[in-house]
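Handout, section 4.2: multi-component inputs.
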Amino acid sequence: MEAIVLETRNINKSFHDPVTIPVLKDITFQVRKGEFVSVIGKSGCGKSTLLYILSTMDTDYEGDLLIDGELMRDRKESQLARVRNEKIGFVFQFHYLLNEFSVLRNVMLPGLKLNQYSEQEIEHRAFEKLKILGLQDEVMKKPNQLSGGQKQRVAIARALINDPLIIMGDEPTGNLDKKNANIVFDTFKELAHEFKQTLLIVTHDQEFAENTDRIIEMQDGRIIRM
Amino acid sequence: MKFRLLSNIARSLLLARWRQTLVAAIGVTFSITMFVTLLSFMNGLNDLLDGLILNRTPHVKLYNEIKPTEVQPVNLDPKYSKSYNFVRSVKPGKTTKEIRNYLAVTNSLNKDKRVLGYAPKVVTQVFFNVGATDLTAAINGIDPDLENRLFKFNEYVVKGDYLDLKNIPNSIILGKALAETMMVEVGDLVQITTSQGERVQLKVVGLFQSGLQELDKVQSYASIGTVQKILGKNTSYVTDIQIKLVDMAQAPALAKEFGRKYETDAEDIQAANAQFETGSKIRNLISYAVGITLLIVAGFGIYNILNMMIYEKMDSIAILKATGFAGSDVKRIFISIAISIGLFGGIFGLLFGLGLTSLIDQIPFDTPALPTIKTFPVRYDPKYYIIGGVFSLITTYFAGYFPAKKASKIDPVIIIRGK
Ligand SMILES: Nc1ncnc2c1ncn2[C@@H]1O[C@H](COP(=O)(O)OP(=O)(O)OP(=O)(O)O)[C@@H](O)[C@H]1O
Ligand SMILES: [Mg+2]
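Output:
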């Protein structure tokens, strides 16, 4: 059995504006190393909310979150930032690239922040990641000179730069057409099977979900299948 | 490494908005320029006005005032020592304006380390005979060399050479206004009558202008020997000793001490010219107030620019935080943006301040009252540049601090959800 990289124990979350609405109820599951998991469910069932908690960006919840076996409770903001930097790669529906920087520099930024390798090495690694994603010819462009599909692939390369424990994606293909969405799917599959990358991807696409190792289905804030 | 990364990000954000950044920096530049220029100019003015009076005024003046003795004979009588004695209509006794034991006093002053120098003076009132009328004026008998060394005598001799007082016997330098009234020029002779009725002819070798018209109407200078001779006194007859101290602030204390020690009256410069210091202080206060106000206004400019930048860069800040940058990193990025605006704006402000100051220094400023001043007065003092530089950094830091803090508190979830 592979090691557990992500674990939740009875996570509950409610929004209080102005009345208290429970959004997540008793979320308990585990993700093992190398697994390619998809999360599906109707709109509004709490998938994004769950993902923000799992990524440590949202700390306002009850229950336990363990990443790499470590409990995330009562950590300082800067410590959580460090966990995100080192262990989590996040791909959003929107690419969120910084237009002030080149594609290469965008990918390098989290690596420079982690400061584990020299700048040259980080640059080399960023180039390698972009090559995996078929973007070796675009490295010096600015993000606003790329197509939507290309931008999303740059965002994936950025998520990969620090060899994260797990990549999380919140509908990373939601903004893309069928062709580009397929390219991104294939990229994830390749990462999962060739590089044993752990992935947890929220999606609306039934076809995509069926091609993953495991499906977690949610309904009204609960997990109904996993 | 970390610092380099953050400043690199800061620079990119800054360059992406270079127009606004430039405007903010120009605001700082403008205020620092004005701050430095204002202080240099105001203090130049202070120096000028100080020079007008303070430089020419002894720090301590020893003299004898003609006045009744404080201790009347009746008070010395043991019989009346217990009673309160009234003496009406007291008149000064046989007192003289002469400083007693002049040589002993100068010996003592020579040894005093607190004394920078001193110049003896014989002051006497005379009549200048002009046709049928007589004009009263004072003749100051001075040692031209000492007077020049301590009180910059040559600066206000506008015609002729002050050294002629020493070189030409029976010579006199008249106040310009006095000479105009008598319609005499350099080279002419004037006749004076002393209070003892003695008549003497003196040759005009120069004119002086002190900057104070009233003074120029009633003052004249001759060598100390000449005046002693006119008065029929010997060379130890001196009525005033003008003392310059190493430290002017000590004047009131030393005036008291000297007065007691040498048994003379003593006046210090602070008592004689209290209003001048007040004027300098107020001018200084105004310059600082204006400078700091300008800086604060510039600070608000920076504050606005940063707020706008943060609003525009919400997404970038959110993604930086999502990918592992801590709130403190974000704060540092925005503070360094503010500080660099302050730094560059400030450096240019200091340079322009120096430029503007030297420009003012070139502008002709001719006034008959101030013969030595040809251009507007300014003072070049590194102190103003240091204060200006430090102020620019402090204000921009605070202008950046609050927006930066706001940026560091941005919750990435809210931004990302909002899309
Ligand atoms: N800030 C908030 N305040 C109150 N309620 C919220 C807030 N954010 C989300 N919700 C509610 O929480 C529920 C879950 O939202 P969430 O965004 O997690 O859904 P989702 O499963 O990601 O939906 P979708 O598939 O449309 O993205 C929704 O009913 C939503 O209305
Ligand atoms: Mg969602």
